[in-house]
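Why does residue order matter? Because the sequence determines the fold. Keep that principle in mind as you read this record.
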Amino acid sequence: MLKVLSKFTQDHLLGVAKNFLIDGVFQSFETHGNGNVNDTYLLYYDSADCVNRYTLQRINHEVFKNPVGLMENFSRVTRHLQEKFANVQSNLQSLSLISTNKGKSFHQDSEGNYWRVTKFIDGGRSFDVPENIQQAYQAAKAFGEFQLNLTDLPGDPLIDTIPDFHNTRMRFEDLLSAVERDKVNRVAEVVDLIDFAVGRESLSDKIKCENFPLRVVHNDTKLNNVLLHKTTGEGMCVVDLDTVMPGCALHDFGDLVRTAACSAFEDEIDLDKVRFEADVFVAIVRGYLESAGNMLDQIEIEHLALAPQVITYELGLRFLTDYLDGDPYFKINRPGHNLDRTRAQFKLLTSLEEHFSKMEEIVREFSSSKAFA
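Structure:
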C-alpha cells in the first residue's frame, strides 16, 4: 500500500501509535479524510488472519484550547452511546476509543501534540453531498437519534470545547474587526462580500442558544460526519465528535441542510452550480423529525426552516474572516480557497432566502401531521 503525503513521518506516527493498546503488527498508514482542522491517519495492523484498521488523529490544540477536556467529553459521550446501543435496538453504533498503555484516552507526544486512536468503523461510507434522497434522509435520522440518545447523559455538563462556537453575533463582530485590521490587505477585493454580510446582519440574532433549550449536540453536522452502511444505506455511526457539547439543536439541523440540501460542494467555484435542493430538504425534515421530533419543543420546530439560513450565514462569515486574516484557521488547498468557500456559502444563502416560504410549509406539513409521533 502506498503511503500518501503526510506532515508527520511514518516513524513519528509509529512512535505515537506504540503508546496505544493496538492489536497486531504495524503494516502501513495513509492520510484519511478531508477535515479542515485535525490531522487524521488510517493505520493498518496485521493480526492473525486479518488486517485491522484504526483511526489515529492529532487534535489541533491551536483550535481546541482544552484538548484534555475535549477528550473527557469524547470519552463520556462514546461510553454513554455504547451503553445505549447495547441495550436498545438500533442500527447505529458508536466510535470506540483505544486506551493508551497508561489507561488514558489520549497521548501527548514530546512535541506537545495530542493524539487519540479509535477503532475504524467497517462497512461505512461518508459523502460530501448526497447521491440520492435516501442518503439525506438516513443522515438526518442518524443525527436526530444521536441528539436523542444524549438527552440523558449523566454527570456534569460537557465542557465547551470551543466557547461561543455558534455565536453568530460574535462571528459578525469578528468579521468587522477583520475588516478594520485588513491584516493582509485583502479588504479592497471583497467589498461586495462584506456588503452582503453587513446587509444580513439581522441573521446574527435570529438563533441565540440562550433563547432555546440547551441540549447535548454535535455542532458540526456536515453530511460527511455520519457514516452510511455501504450495502443497506442506513445510518451507521456519527463521527467527528470534537465539538459535541452543550448547544442548540437548530444549529445541528441547519448545518446538515447546508451541506446536504445544496447542489454543490461548500467550496464550489462555479456559483451557477450552487442552489438549495427542496426535495432533499423534505427528506432531511422527515428523517430528523422521525428520530428527534418528540424531543423538540415547539419553538425549535418553528425555527427549523430558518436555521439553515443562520448557519450558512455564520459559515460564510467565518470563511470570509479567515480569508481577511490570512487563512490561519481553516486548512486551504489553493490560493483563495476561503474566498471560494465564502462565495459559495453566500450564494447558497441567497437560494435559501428565495425558498424560505416553501421550507416553512414543508416543516409545518411534517410537524402538524405528527409523522414523527
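Confidence is low (pLDDT under 50) at residues 1-5.
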